[in-house]
UniProtKB/TrEMBL annotation:
Pfam families hit by this protein: DUF6456
Domain of life: Bacteria
Name used for this protein in its record: DUF6456 domain-containing protein
Domain DUF6456: start-end pairs: 22-155
């Protein structure tokens, strides 16, 4: 069995810093996250990596991967257990399909296919470029743009930011009473 390389990555979700574990050996995104560009920054940022892995997790939960044989896992199962307690397996898969559809729609038609190939089907960038007839190193740039859109859809950011235009504080009151 191959050894897993788990790494903690910190991202901001809705303004709250969160650490997540990512298996960097399993996906092309993990490979890109470990590589550095000419300027020394990672080819895939932390928020982009988490967004891509989140899409892949929902894709897997949605059972959208093509099967070559019959699915015998569900035969003989009963009861509700696991992370989707309260939902039947088919309801959980349908909810995951809806999340995948919403994420790919938010990314837009120009990025949806590439995100599906790299994040879900785990195709390498060279293979994607070959399949699409793109020049070398084009997929890396387009993937970065698609992952940015995906991260924005999920509410992920590298740093927490407040509202663009916050109004000034007009009054401060004690004990939760509004100022008059």
């Amino acid at each position: 069995m191959a050894e897993r390389r788990l790494e903690r990555v910190e991202v901001a979700v809705d303004g709250v810093a969160t650490q997540v574990l990512v298996d960097l050996e399993e996906s092309p995104l993990g490979w890109l996250a470990r590589r550095r560009g000419r300027d020394g920054s990672a080819l895939v940022g932390a928020a982009q990596l988490v967004a891509g892995e989140r899409l892949r997790a929902d894709f897997t939960r949605a059972q959208m991967m093509p099967r070559l044989t019959a699915d015998w896992e569900a035969v003989g199962r009963s009861g509700r257990r696991g992370p989707s307690a309260g939902l039947t397996p088919s309801e959980a898969a349908m909810a995951a399909r809806q999340r995948v559809s919403a994420a790919l729609e938010a990314a837009g038609p120009e990025f949806a296919g590439l995100l599906t190939d790299v994040c879900c089907f785990l195709k390498g960038l060279e293979q994607v470029e070959q399949d699409r007839g793109w020049p070398a190193r084009t997929a890396k740039v387009v993937l970065g743009l698609g992952l940015d859109r995906l991260a924005r859809h999920y509410g992920l950011a590298v740093a927490a930011r407040g509202p663009e235009r916050a109004g000034p504080i007009r009054a401060w009151s004690a004990q939760g009473r509004p100022a008059l």
